[in-house]
Every structure is written in structure tokens, then in C-alpha cells.
Design goal:
Structural class: alpha/beta
Number of strands: 10
Helix content: 40-55%
Radius of gyration: 19 Å
Bound molecules: ligand NHR
Strand order of the largest sheet: 3-4-5-6-10
Shape: globular
Distance between the termini: 37 Å
Length: 240
């Protein structure tokens, strides 16, 4: 299977971008079992990232994945994809400000332009949030401004909502606030419990986050009066 990325790369190099993307969609195998598989996976990811970027879906690459916990699953995924990882343990720093300063150093050292929070569970200081104003995005599993904070699905169910969903937004100091970029709604169905609803919302998250990042990376988003303007139109973009 490790020949596959080379084959895809050859096709890509001939300028057959769509064909290369279709090939990568049929690969890799579901489970990576050998070191060769992992290498191949990394190669495949690189080709795919290049092809997608060239087609114009997302003009960005991942510079670094940072976690506050060494056991975060995302670190393993990043490593397998050939992406640099950094673990910053809160215990190693005397204050939140010091922690966030170290975070800024790690990001700037790699010329990072946009920061995407995904399950990052530490509140960021005003210093950090202001330094990354309109370049720091987060996804929250509710249709904000409804149900900010924890237990969003539980509260949506208790409120008898007919729809749930997720919101991608620029981060402000106050939790789960900030200009909305993209919202994706899903129905609440009979018999839903927290887990079933969360699984459905997660599907929506996988559509909303890449779209929001691609809009920001393409320079299509401005903020005016704390509202996001996407191609000049008031946000958020709605996916349903
Ligand atoms: N930082 C700021 N300033 N503003 C936001 O809106 C932020 C933020 C940092 C992270 C993500 C958000 C989430 O994904 C996020 C939004 C953690 C907390 C929190 O209270 C709140 C929101 C989010 C993440 N963290 C506690 C803290 O003291 C610790 C909670 C815990 O460890 O379980 O940092 O949900």
C-alpha cells in the first residue's frame, strides 16, 4: 500500500488534480498497522493537502498542533500526518499569562497566521485573545447564542429544541462569544439522548469547521461592529 502515495503524487505532478484527489479518497486503509503504512499515510496526506490547496478549497497548511495534555488523541493523529506537535503542560508555568506567552512563542516561531481551537479546554487570557483578534477561531456544539458553556446538548434537549447544531466563531475574551462565521443545524429526533444528539452535531462540525477556516484563509472575512462579513454579507453562513 505504500506505493499508493507515490502513484498519487505522480498523477498530481502531471496536473491531474481531480484524479489525484479521487485516488486519495479511496485510501488509506482503515487501520494503520505497520511503520510503512504510517509513512504511506503521511505521504498520502501531503499529496492530498497539496491537491486540495491547488484546487482552491483550502489555501492553508497546518503549521503545528498544540495541546495542554500529552495524552490528547489529536497529537497522535497529527504525528501520523507528519504535522509538528507541541505539548505545553500548565504545571510547567507559574501563571496563565506565562502559559499563554509560551503559546504565542510556539505559534509565532512557526509563522502561524490563524489559530483553530478544537477541544482546547483552557480559557485563554485577554492578552492572548487580543493578540490573535479575528485570527483565532473556535467551534462550539450549539447554535450560539443558545446554550453557551458546558452540557449544551443536555440543555438543548431539556428545552425541547427542534434543532441543534454547531457554531464556528472568532474568539473573544468572554466565553463562547464573538462574531459568528458558520452555523450548521441538525434536527433533534425522537428518542435522542445526549450521546445520539452529540454524534449528529459532530457530523455538522466536520462540515462547518473546514468551511469557516477556508473562508478566513481565503481572506473573505472581515469584522465590522462585532459582526462577521463574508464576501461583504453579514454572517454567519448557514449550513443545514
Ligand atoms: N478562551 C477565551 N478567552 N474565550 C473563549 O471563548 C475560549 C477560550 C478558550 C477555549 C473553547 C471552549 C470550548 O471548546 C475556548 C473558548 C474551556 C473553558 C473553561 O472554562 C471554556 C470554554 C472552552 C474551553 N476552561 C476551564 C479553565 O479554567 C477549565 C475547564 C476544565 O478543565 O474542564 O480554563 O468548550
Amino acid at each position: 500500500s505504500s506505493a499508493v502515495p507515490h502513484l498519487v503524487d505522480a498523477v498530481y505532478r502531471q496536473g491531474r488534480v481531480e484524479e489525484a484527489l479521487q485516488m486519495t479518497e479511496r485510501w488509506p486503509p482503515e487501520r494503520l498497522t505497520t511503520p510503512e503504512d504510517v509513512d504511506a499515510h503521511v505521504g498520502w496526506r501531503r499529496v492530498r493537502a497539496k491537491a486540495v490547496a491547488r484546487r482552491g478549497d483550502l489555501d492553508a497548511s497546518v503549521g503545528v498542533v498544540v495541546s495542554s495534555r500529552a495524552d490528547a488523541g489529536g497529537l497522535q493523529h497529527a504525528h501520523e500526518a507528519g504535522i509538528e506537535t507541541v505539548v505545553l503542560s500548565p504545571r510547567a508555568f507559574p501563571s496563565r499569562e506565562a502559559y499563554d506567552r509560551a503559546l504565542v512563542v510556539e505559534l509565532e516561531r512557526r509563522r502561524v497566521e490563524v489559530v483553530c481551537l478544537a477541544g482546547f479546554m483552557r480559557l485563554l487570557t485577554a492578552g492572548f485573545v487580543d493578540a490573535w483578534r479575528d485570527r483565532l477561531i473556535n467551534i462550539h456544539p450549539s447554535l450560539l447564542p443558545k446554550f453557551p458553556g458546558l452540557d449544551t446538548h443536555k440543555r438543548a434537549l431539556e428545552a425541547g429544541e427542534t434543532h441543534a447544531g454547531c457554531s464556528v466563531h472568532f474568539v473573544r475574551t468572554e466565553m463562547d462569544s464573538g462574531p459568528l462565521l458558520v452555523q450548521a443545524a441538525v434536527p433533534v429526533l425522537p428518542g435522542d439522548d445526549e450521546d445520539r444528539l452529540a454524534a449528529r452535531v459532530l457530523q455538522a462540525e466536520h462540515r462547518a469547521y473546514p468551511l469557516a477556516l477556508s473562508l478566513v484563509a481565503a481572506g473573505r472575512v472581515r469584522v465590522a461592529g462585532e459582526q462577521a462579513l463574508i464576501d461583504g454579507q453579514p454572517g454567519p453562513v448557514r449550513l443545514d
